[in-house]
User: Fold these one by one.
Assistant:
Number 1:
Amino acid sequence: MTLSTDILTTPTPAARLLAQGRLVAFPTETVYGLGGNALSDAAVAAIYAAKGRPRFNPLIIHLADIAQISRFAHLTDAAAILAQAFWPGPLTLVLPLAADHGLSPLVTAGLDTVAVRIPDLPLARDLLRLTDLPIAAPSANPSGRVSPTTAQHVLDGLSGKIDAVLDGGPCGVGLESTIVGFDPVPTLLRPGGLPTQAIERALGYPLALPDTGAKITAPGQLTSHYAPLGTVRLNAQSARPGETLLGFGAVKADLNLSPGGDLAQAAANLFRHLRTLDAQGARKIAVSPIPDTGLGQAINDRLRRAAAPRG
Ligand code: TXA
Ligand code: MG
């Protein structure tokens, strides 16, 4: 179905559309999300259809306020520590579902857990407060492609497939949220916009790593996620003939994530630069080494997926 996709700049009409079961992309501090009413099977089914996303890959619900959680999920002890320390913010917690949660089973892909996030961007929180609904929102990109960090990126991938995009300018963090599960101990399911070191400091002990290969539902485990169109070679000291160099730090590069070697700046630029390389028709992309500390861990995770063999 082809729709005309409206560009909105205020949350009120966006909230009205969401309440009507329509799809609205909206900004958060991490990336733009493709929002729909998480209580509605039809709205959630439309999210999967617009993205071309496999239905076994569950969605994050977004709430305005921590007080709303208990209706949908149980905050276990360790989860409550992280919620207290980092919400609102770029953190998603995978929690046991509450009884009578009312969420569409499509949101959780039939699991007995639900991923929950309270974003920090004021425009996102205004929108969520106005709807007073749990809003299911994956990143607002066609499945398998790079996440959007501007309203224009959303339109480039989903124009005509969603009702509207709420334009809040570029996303400040630029990488998806960090995802932590608790089955049975606090576990890093996806590195992201909140550095793991900060989480481990709040907990007082290290996060476990997921049992790879165990569950197909582990987030972002599909090969060739976050992919640009060109091939990607990592840890390149310089470009080989025919390659375009995506630099980091003081190197002579075609595009640089952060000439000064700042990881927060590199995170904010990563997806935009990958899109620019696509637009320039770069077929072979070489990427400078990036330190694997702080936000560098999430940047390297996304780059490794971008470099993975295409499925
Ligand atoms: O920053 C973000 O997290 C953005 C913004 C819009 O909030 N959202 C986002 O959603 O990145 P998405 O759908 O692209 O990634 C969510 C990940 C998926 O890899 C999914 O497998 C995982 O979360 N996930 C969702 N529910 C889960 C659950 N119950 N158990 C394990 N993983 C889950
Ligand atoms: Mg995504």
Number 2:
Amino acid sequence: MEYTEIMVRYGELSTKGKNRKDFIKQLGKNVRHSLHDFPGLEIRAQYDRLHVALNGTPAQPVMDRLKGVFGIENFSPMIKLEKDFEQVKDTALEMVKAQYKPGMTFKINTKRQDHNFEFDTNQINDKLGGHILRNVPGIEVQMRQPDIMIKVEVRLNGIFLTSETIKGAGGLPVGTGGHAVMMLSGGIDSPVASYLGMKRGVKLDMVHFFSPPYTSEQALAKAKELTSKIAGYAGSIQFVQVPFTKAQEEIKEKVPEGYLMTIQRRMMLRITAAIAQLRGAKGVFTGESLGQVASQTLESMLAINDVTNMPVLRPLVSMDKTEIIKIAEQIDTYDLSILPFEDCCTIFTPPAPKTRPDLEKTRNFEKLVDVDALMKEAIDGIQVCNIRPGENFMNQQEDVFAELL
Ligand code: ATP
Ligand code: MG
């Protein structure tokens, strides 16, 4: 079928007033951004729906992109016709034939906005239904749950036919939920948490800590590559890399082993919150979930969270690893995440970190290091880049394999 436009329906229709206006405006912007390399399209975001006129562009690649835009409930490829009923009959028949298999049933569902059109909805249903019954041997009409549903809309500017509704990504348009930073490691969890944060409309900047020479160039490249995997949901993503070697070395030298991990995490969160503030962001997201590892007990979270008043959001907090992995596979980050490059945290984590650190002791041990100087040094050394969907950072295959061996 040669479709002429795609009609997009919004999610979470309960949003009203100003919020709703912002929602529609942002969604229009995000759709335009995600389809920017299809020059023939015309995109109009209206109060109740968004229309993408194809102007000869094939529908499928456009629909594949739309599937990744948050805020879309579903969409339908449509054919727009002039108000010529013979053409409508032919096209409806063609649509049915394209899907028909023996034993299937169908239904015509007409809506009429143009009350001057020569037929009313019942007449249109009857005429089109009759035409299909006469031309598709064996097919029957079924009112409830037909296999094939042809929707006909008679509008002022033409007649629109569609027979498919495709599920969208749901959620809220990225940008309507404010701006936060994401603590992104190279692991399985933080990319999934990023995806879920963006799904609620939050624009996220990635903050990644790395510790050369203890962590390799490839570990940094992996975090960037993970960012490019999920950048499609946001258009593009700012990536902030933070040098953490000096802080880790000093903490390791001065703090008792049981508290190394807690104090290291406090330092990471403190630096991240400062970066958030510098960028005007209002919260910090992490990929933590309760009970997974030593740093992810409530006592640990209390001792680590102590360094900031900013909201720390943990979209995975109550998810099982298997559920998290399922999403990682869906968003295509899993295979990358499991590549075995050392993370700065694993390298400096002692064999037996305290799972229930004491808050007062934590605060006291931390006084052994020069927090302000280490923070300043890390923040002075940050580098920022903008990452677009599909960009490659790990294409030096030989290096990758050399490290794996
Ligand atoms: P992940 O799979 O996201 O690495 P994890 O289960 O391995 O999580 P940790 O490695 O303890 O758990 O990390 C917990 C969270 O701390 C991560 O989800 C991430 O938000 C943050 N984090 C860990 N390492 C880094 C890093 N190098 N840079 C930025 N954030 C990090
Ligand atoms: Mg990890």
